[in-house]
Structures are given as structure tokens and as C-alpha cells.
Amino acid sequence: MSDAFLERRRLLLWLGATAAMPVLAACGGGAAEAKSFPVSYSDAEWRKRLTPAQYHILREQGTERPGSSPLLKEHRKGTFVCAADGNPLFSSATKFESGTGWPSFYRPLRGGVGTSTDYKLGYARTEVHCAKCGGHLGHVFDDGPLPTGLRYCMNGDAMLFRAA
Asked: Rounded CA gap, 64 and 15, in Å?
């Protein structure tokens, strides 16, 4: 192999590694993990307080199977709250059928959620977390209905429903 070929190869490897660094650095978790929240417990205490499915989603940024949440069929008036701390997240008035298999909303309640950037799939997505405990709820996308155009695609196991 020629020296020019090896130099070009070395340059391409360096460029690729440099481009991948921000993604690899973010793969460990989003801003929600690094920030402190008003509701905070040790990992052992979270495990005691939550079901295994809730723990997996809220504390390990997991996802439930599409179509598996009983909250998909919840159409009464009320409020969807965080399963970890009871923080009000979404009004039933903003719930809509997205056809994705997860409960979807077009607007959260004021102060209910926060967002951070998630690179776990190798590209940027906007993660949604509880503003009080930092628990992972799902993601928000820009393909929702009016008036916001947003689709808050939430894991049902991360929430509870309180009827009005």
C-alpha cells in the first residue's frame, strides 16, 4: 500500500471517530439523568416503589410493547400522572389516537414534563421526562395534530390515570 493511501485512510478514520464522539458521549443517557429533581430516591428505593415494568421504563429509559398499555383505551375525563411520583403530566382533553400503539397527547400540562436529547438509536430524538422525578416517559415528535403539531408518545406503564 502506498503512503498516500495510508494517510488518507488514517484521515478518514480520524474524521469518523471525531464525528462519532458526541453521539457516543450521549449514549449513556440524557440530561434528565444528570440533573437533580425535587423527587429523588436511591436505586434500591425506586425498585421498591415501582413495579418491574415501571422501573424499566421510568428509571432505565425502557419502552413497553406497542399496543400493550391499558391506557390506550382510557377515554374518560381526567389526568394522566407520573407512576413514580403522581406529578400531573397530561389532561385527557389532549389525548388522541395516533395509531402508534402508545398513548399519545398533543400538549403536556404546564410544568409537568421536561425534555432532553436522546441519542440511543444513533440519532437525536427528544426524550420526555417527568419534571419532578426525571423518570423517562417517552418521546415527542413533530407529526401530531393541531393545535401544536406535536405527538407526545408516552409509555403507559410510566403513567397512572386519575379520573375527574
From this structure: 37
